[in-house]
Fold these 4 entries.
Entry 1:
Amino acid sequence: MKIKILLLLLLSASAFAQQFTASSKITGVKNSGLHAVPLTPEFRSHTDVNLSGIRVWDSRKKEVPYLLEEANEAVSKYNFKEYTLLSKSVVADTISQVIVQNTGAAKWDAITLAIANTDAAKTYSISGSHDNKEWFGLVNNQMISGLYSHTDTLVYKTLPMPVNAYRYLKISFNDKKTLPLNILAAGSVTGTQTAPVLLEAANSHVKIMQLALEKKTRVTISFNEPVTINRIAFTIKSPSLYKRNARLFLQRVKRRKKKTVPYMEEFYAFDLNSSSKNVIDGLNLNENKVVIEIDNKDNEALEIASVKVFQNPVKLIADLKAGEQYTVMAGNKELAAPDYDLENFRDQISDSIPKAALAKPVLLSAKPKGINGGKSPWIMWVCIAVGALILLYFCYSLVQDLKKKENPAP
């Protein structure tokens, strides 16, 4: 019976351990206290999209509280000056609008919105008015995205526009594909903003194809696992003068006659221009493949030197002890975000706390490389069923042994 109990415990422990897919040691803790541990792109390639499946363990596998801090737009409630938000209106499944009154500067060239945390992306237009009656166009059909935060309930998003002296602004959002955004406030940012230094995503594979008959260039960016994408940057070698329309597509699936059919959905339209930086910013995607098509028309194809994907830096903050060994576990998609007391002291944590580092991540489990490169889900379900039957057998045997022990034969 002892052997059966031991096997049951081992199976349970094994099932628990397999929930995490990767781990990484924390290094560089020289003194006890709060430390900031930057999450490397290699480590993040093994995490879930919301980073909720991360846990920190000490050498005894005791859970260590932590909080995450993402370097996004350098805007906070301390340098955000609110304007009067006159109205918000929603036409279901069509359009939502907010009207803002400029109560400050005589001229403005941007408006900053405080938006409730969401993973939605939308197109928007901006118009201006002197009397809140007659409206004139300023910005048309631009994309707003990157509205998701790992650490806060709202994000600040600055929308640029031509310099104008209109007293009122109307911002209209296209709601045909997604529910309306929750606009909490509108205003301007005071002081100097410092943009975070983004990190290049790990394991990106770029393939460039020239579609001569279609007069297009197709750029496919793929990854080993779904990764967070906040920026895509192009380096164009030639020609010296160009302006090309481009579109970004995401791979999606739909049901058709009880079958799952993959297709490419257009997500964002933009231009590649010799007079611009050729950077798609403000994205908040988690994908293992994106496709970009560039319309060349009758021009020669662009000579693309490089296409790179970047992520906003995220650091893990925890109270660590010198001499202790800590491991950061990742990839448990079943876990919800933890609720630690440390979160209540976020505003009191200094930016100058010492830094620690993450070692190279170690894989705890790997996808099967059998039929279709591990894309056959029936193998997974067979393994789960076999494991469940083994557990049931040992539980049944254990109960029978206990009954015999309690009621021995005469």
Entry 2:
Amino acid sequence: MSYRTTRRKFLQRIAAAGAALPVFMSSRAEAQDKHPDLRVAFIGTGGMGGAHVGEMGNLGVSCPCFCDVDTDNQSQAKRMYPKATAYQDYRRMFDKEAKNIDAVMIGVPDHSHFPATIIAMQLGIHVYTQKPLTQTVWEARMLRRAAERYKVVTQMGNQGHAGEDWRRLYEIIHAGGIGDVKEVHTWTDRPIWPQGIGRPEGSDPVPPNLDWDVWLGPAPVRPFKQGVYHPFAWRGWWDFGAGALGDMACHTMDGMFWSLDPGYPAAVEPVVINNKTAETFPNSSIIRWEFPAKGDRPGFVQYWYDGGLKPDRPADLEQGRELPPTGNLFVGTKGTLIIAGDYGSGITTIPEPLINDIGDPPKLLERSPGHYLEWVLACKGDGKTWSNFGYAAPMTETILLGNVAVHVGERIEWDGEKLEITNLPDANQYINKEYREGWKVWA
């Protein structure tokens, strides 16, 4: 598959996702007054950054400034907020505009999530950061601590966390609908970008619309190559992205984290790694987490599959039923849940009649007014965010341990309290990364 075809399909998916966003919005959101008294800045105004601009435009917030390293990506923001000041370097934007900003939305490549987010928090600015919250395990732990320290409103961009479906899963699990959960299997249709490749030779001229040095941010310097990293395929590179796992697990594994509250894993193991290189994530992988018992919940294992791999078809799955393209299996002592898609929709059971017995469990969780609206309201002191960093950072940290295990290529045993791999000391180098001079911007 060519890069052009891959990117086109990805953009089609983004468009479809944007069209589907009202699914997460309640009638309250549709009737809600505009919010011009909230001043929101944007770091990243193309791709998901563009979705941020559109959503905030719908909610009527003010925008004093925005930033994108590629001026070609700024057109939507300029059109919606013609009086806002445009920047290409978010550090300069914060230096000049901090006093004019109440909240910021960050939609840039993974490797720049942490420095942009921590600067905002240190300035007392509320933050919304796209998933995965960070690129490394250490960064996630630091943002969890920063949220406790700076007391700003925080939210990660996993939209399904505001929806009804993951709440229903939580309530089914807590009502004992399938008994004790023994295994969870999660799979995705990613990657839809190149992986399993080496770094290309040579360089191309940097286009005049792009600040390549700022795009690289904290990552090591490398030559610009047209279409290889920016604007899309960065997700597959160790230096810039977090692979298929980082891209989708904060969506598709959200239900497991919410309903089972796993805590720290005891160990993480790469079961399958196909065609990993020193530069990029593998073409496909299977990863296994082992979670110990916690309170009344027994221990269980979590599996992740990407690159076209899926769990084995359950032997007792009725003839003619197939596993969905993306989704989850929750295997319990009383039965199995099949969950389609990335946001917990389409819950069915094995055996199929069990879904009728489960019915509608008691509602244990407050409902959200909508993923973006809840953040806006929380920034104004009205309500809370559900995927705040107190929840999202530990989830991201645990997910990204899977990438550490893939990088090492061996089972790692984890001491979560000490933030340390205990069985392979050399593997601790992958818990974080080196930051380029000028980009280590936190205390």
Entry 3:
Amino acid sequence: MTRKLARRLRWTTTLVASIAALSLGLSACGDRPEDANGGEHGEAEAEFERGPHNGRLLRDGDLSLEITIFETGVEPQFRVYPYVKDRPLDPALVNLTMALTRLGGRVDRFAFTSQGEYLVGSGVVAEPHSFDVEVAATQGGKVHAWRYRSYEGRTTIARTAAEAGGVKVEQAGPTEISETLDLSGRIALQPSGRGEVRAWFPGRVVSLSANVGDRVARGQVIARIESSESLQTYPIPAPISGVVLERPANVGGVASDNPIYVIANPAAIQAEFHVFPRDAERVRPGQRVTIRSLGGEMTALSVIDAFLPLTEVSTQTVTARARVPNANGFWRPGMAVEGTVATRTTAIPLAVRTSALQRFRDFTVVFARVGDTYEVRMLELGRQTPEWTEVLGGLAPGETYVTEGAFLIRADIEKSGASHDH
């Protein structure tokens, strides 16, 4: 291991540890639960009192409520069991409402109706089950109220620490998703990118001013020929700008129909892709194509120009062409390349970057950011490409989410123990 690599590894390890420590400290300060009876700071979240159904037990005088979220075979729903002096109470005797304030300020409100031995909430408790809870109950003419915090998949990290750790964000919104087709091919000169220089009239070669490998400009005089008929010497200019590939002629030789020079313009190149018959109906001129070198170190964007009207007998493929920008001269004729063609493009109202997706419990999620707080968003997904994934539910348009460095957020959440516990 080189000293430079060792220093980078030590720096990365120190940075991750620093972020973890800082986020833990911030989480401890910002996410301590309120006491179930309304106090500002009570027992740790994992130590709240539980009832017979393993739910959170809220007490006020003789009345107590056991709050549970039931999700076996049904969409998550509140089921609340009432007690008086720790004995089961007829749920019909309790008037109950709840309000859940989520990260970002959205409030979900629930009314309750009696069902058997419990009160059932009026709607689905959407994931994540992470919110500030307000409970209001009336029983026997008395009003009772509780407030508490119930967080999962949430952590707080200072903006500077997150950015130093490589965390990047962007807003979720509309995009275009393309169905793609992978092709193989090679780089070739465009027909206009190759020029063969010949004498206009047969004669003796008097001078040649360019050699193989030289760059020449269009119109630059690169040869002089003495006509065999008039015995006058005339100049031969370069027909295109480019690099001299060949110089078959020599001074003193006879120029006739054979080329004096062969010139190639490295900027006038194209990718030629082999399209198999099963895919030929999907590829059309005008479609976008991403061209990649085999090592993946260089890419270029282009469009399919045209198809050659012939099928190669040996491979039964047709050839699709796309011009390749080559300002830096990286692409060279004869190079093998890969291409990804966008065969059909569809506009979708909401998407996230595929690289941002993470696993949390049994869900595919991204991490939303509000201020310095990060929280999971369980996603319902649609179509997917290597770059974009369609979102059908779980994230709001315009919501800010983590696109890079999400592993740091997930690690901090897992370390803090913000679990799915009610």
Entry 4:
Amino acid sequence: MACPYFYPTERLSEKVWPKPPRVSLGDPYAGLCCVDPLREWRPDDATLRDFCNRGYPRQGCPRFPAGEGPDMVRFSVISDRDGVIKIYYVVEKNGSPMEHGEIEYLEDSRRFRANFAGGMLERQAQAYAESYVRRKLEPQQEAQNPHRR
């Protein structure tokens, strides 16, 4: 479950996190903490591992805001057909949905259909979709080029 204030910018290298657990964006990401949009902060490696990528930041991240905002964001693929990947998302607080919906990612253009508008949630969904596509294509690429390693 990604932190709802985490703006992923690039996949984390295996040097930073050699064997990550399953994370909500599919792959672990480096990025920005946007708790205060006027003062973006680049989290250190430990914060990225412990809070930004793995979720539940309210329970330990010193930057996480108090109040009624969301705790985490979850994503899952509900279908993948004809170049359209349908993704279901849930924004949660205390394990209960605050917002949820279905979005469609167009694999060829690497964009969402117009039914999804912007911001942090869209960037997280984009990172999730890119991770999903990469993982989906990896076995095909390895089969085509078995001596690549």
